[in-house]
Each structure stands twice: as C-alpha cells, then as structure tokens.
Amino acid sequence: MIEQIDFEDLPISELKAAKTAKGKGMKILYISCVGSHMWRMESKESDIDLVMIYTVSTRRILRGEKFPAAIRQEMAAKEGGIYDTLGWEIGHLIDLLIKGNINAIWYATSPLVIMPSALQEELSALVQANLCRESYHSIKGMAESQIKSETGQLKLSGAGLAGRPGKGYRTALRSINFGIELLREARISYEPVMHDPTPEELKEGMNQLDEAYRQSMLPDLPDEDQFRDFLLGQRLKEMDEDAGKD
Question: What angle do CA 101, 106, 181 make, to 5 degrees?
Fold first, then answer.
C-alpha cells in the first residue's frame, strides 16, 4: 500500500548520497504522493508519483554555498509498482507558492502524505489560507498542456479528435475543476474524473474556468510575508538544531 512505503526502498539515490556527505547533509521534511493516486484515479498500471520536500543546512545557505533547489526525477521498479520520485528544497517550494504555481500547491496540500510532519500540516494550512487569483494562469497552462499532449497522441494514433480520449483529457478536466473550485469557492478539492471527457466538455470547462477567474473574490496575490516568515522560521529552527549537535 502507498501508506506503507519504506524510505530505504525509495529510488532517491542522489538525496541519500547527499545525506551522507560530510557537511552537505539534507533533511527530508515530508514526502507526499501526487499524480493519479492523489486524485484517486490510479489503475493497476499507474506509477507511484512521490515528491520529497527537503531542506539543506541553514549554515550552508549563510555561507553562500551552492545547493540543489531540486533533485532530479528518478524512476525505479519496486515490488508493488513503478516509483517516480523527485525532490524540491523547501525554499524552492515557497518561491513557487508565492507565484501561485499549481504544482507547488499540489505538493504542499496533497491529501496523501506518506511521511507526515507538523511542518507539512502547517504549510498546507498556510497555502489554503492564501489562495489567490494568480494561480489561474498556472492552472490554465497546465490544462492546456494536458489537452495538447492528448490531442497529439490521438493524431499520432490516427484516431483524430473523434477517437476515444484517454488520460490526457481526464487529467486536463481534473485540473480545470480544481481551478474552478479554487477560484469560486476558495477551496482546495481533489475530485477524481472517472469518465472520458469530450473536446466539447473540455472547451466548456475552460470557459467556466475563465469566468471563475473574472468573478473570483480572491486576492490577486498571496501574502508573501506569511510565506517568507514561514521559511525563515524553518531556517532558524534548522540552524538551532544544527548548533545543538556541535
């Protein structure tokens, strides 16, 4: 089961190597499952998509040392499925949350957390209290990319738009619905799309997304200070813990 993933079995060789390098240690803050499992839309063939949010040493940051804002995606077959794993440093996540990035919102608020922490719960609450109209652009771009990908696959298969749509159309509609709910109701909701949407349904969904953006009562941007203060608190806490080890 997803909830019983063993950290040692995860395909994150780069992060594990960094954790053991003298003076270069990284700390995993939490691990969440995203992708189809997050939306309760997985099949037996679905990859298990994991995102690890980690932090580097505050001392390392203050010294001006370079550190990875993200860790490359890795895929590996393990018993029970294919694991598709990537890592984001907490500062990188915060930067993108301030911009209203949809992937960052999903990584911070996924309801399927397999390595939970108080920090993740606090961050999720912070994101939900700072929803904004700016996310519309990221959400629409995501949906358009998903539609374009699926349309390309149909054309390559010779099916054309009259063919039966697949994963791309379903993922596009779930992104659209997510955006409508966020903009209209100021709420994060991971509702699955279990049917095969038609191009007409997607077009209507896009229109509704545009209308939700125009009528949204959300602030244009999130409160950046709240996110920066959250990150500062995490950096200072990490520095205190590191000092206690000396």
Answer: 85
Longest dimension (CA), the chain: 66
How far apart (Å, rounded) are the C-alpha atoms in residues 32 and 232? 22
Compute how many other C-beta atoms are within 10 angstroms of the C-beta atom of residue 10.
22
* Residue 69 backbone phi and psi in degrees, to 5: -75, -25
Which has the closest alpha carbon to 85: 29, 31, 18? Answer: 31
What's the rounded Cα separation, in Å, for the pair 155 and 146? 14
Q: Where are the domains of the chain?
A: 2-130+223-241, 135-215
Taking CA atoms, 191 is separated from 56, 79, 178, 232, 237, in Å, by 34, 28, 8, 33, 36
Distance CA 192, CA 218 (A): 24
**DSSP letter string over 117-141?**
-HHHHHHHHHHHTT--TTHHHHHHH
d(CA 110, CA 172) in angstroms, rounded, equals: 18
Q: pTM of the predicted model, to two decimals?
A: 0.87
| Residue 29 neighbours by CB under 8 Å, 6+ apart | 53, 54, 55, 90, 117, 119, 120, 234
Return d(Cα 88, Cα 12) in angstroms, integer: 12
CATH topology of domain 2-130+223-241: Beta Polymerase; domain 2 (3.30.460)
| Band (12; pLDDT cuts 50, 70, 90) | low
Tokens 């911009």, residue located = 99
CA–CA distance, 51 with 46 (Å, rounded to integer): 16
| Most confident stretch, 6-10, 20-24, 67-71, 160-164 | 67-71
Q: Which two tokens stand for residue 175?
A: 């992104």
Residues 6+ apart with CB under 8 A from 204: none
